[in-house]
Design a protein that fits this description.
Length: 81
Amino acid sequence: MIRNLLAIAFCTLALFVGVVTSSVSAKNRLRGNRLDSLQRWCEAQSRRNEHLRAQNATEQWSLLSGEKEPVQADEVPRADS
């Protein structure tokens, strides 16, 4: 009788641990997917910044070397227009 109760208790405990482990695993996968998407976004922003830095360096070089005339502040095109 006691052996049967212990067997049932251990089976119940094993089932409970399995369900809890599965739940934690699912939450970690969701969090991992979110972290992966954030990492991809950060990498995309980093590439964008590198392109902008390169564009800025090219523009500075052309201005410093005299290839281009500087644009006056009132002649700068605005992004909102």
